[in-house]
User: Which sequence fits this backbone?
């Protein structure tokens, strides 16, 4: 019975059709796997590009590294503090994406005003500040200030 079926011309056509379907199926699977690999590598490249752009945006969000005087803002801030002899009053100094952060303690009113004038002379200004008045039995009224310092409003340092 199997020999009779093999001898029929329709069987040969059916075998050829089956082999053709298997060939098409194999080629389709190969193309699908290749397209999947290309898609995955494209997603990795897009992810890598996104990371690079995020890093560039972070870098550009930091304050300018040079001023009109050719110095970094952090250096200008340090110079102002040293000129006024306030180095021992600095609790924290940091550079971040939103500007320079400085925390100063136990300043008297004249020192605080002089510090603000020095910042202005160097092209820096206080963007935000948390200023607290404290009273000391020995030194009288003093100021503790946490300040976020950046460029002047005209964009120059």
Assistant:
């Amino acid at each position: 019975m199997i020999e009779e079926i093999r001898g029929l011309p329709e069987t040969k056509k059916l075998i050829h059709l089956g082999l053709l379907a298997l060939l098409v199926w194999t080629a389709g699977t190969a193309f699908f796997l290749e397209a999947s690999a290309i898609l995955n590598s494209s997603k990795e490249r897009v992810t890598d590009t996104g990371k690079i752009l995020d890093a560039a945006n972070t870098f550009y969000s930091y304050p300018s590294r040079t001023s009109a005087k050719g110095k970094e803002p952090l250096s200008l801030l340090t110079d102002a503090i040293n000129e006024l002899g306030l180095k021992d009053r600095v609790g924290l100094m940091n550079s971040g994406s939103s500007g320079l952060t400085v925390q100063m303690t136990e300043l008297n009113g004249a020192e605080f005003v002089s510090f603000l004038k020095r910042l202005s002379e160097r092209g820096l200004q206080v963007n935000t500040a948390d200023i607290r008045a404290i009273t000391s039995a020995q030194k009288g009224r003093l100021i503790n200030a946490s300040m976020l310092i950046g460029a002047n409003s005209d964009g120059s340092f």
Helices lie at 2-7, 9-61, 73-83, 109-121. DSSP finds four helices and four strands in the chain. The first strand starts at residue 90 and ends at 96. The chain has two domains: 2-61, 73-151.
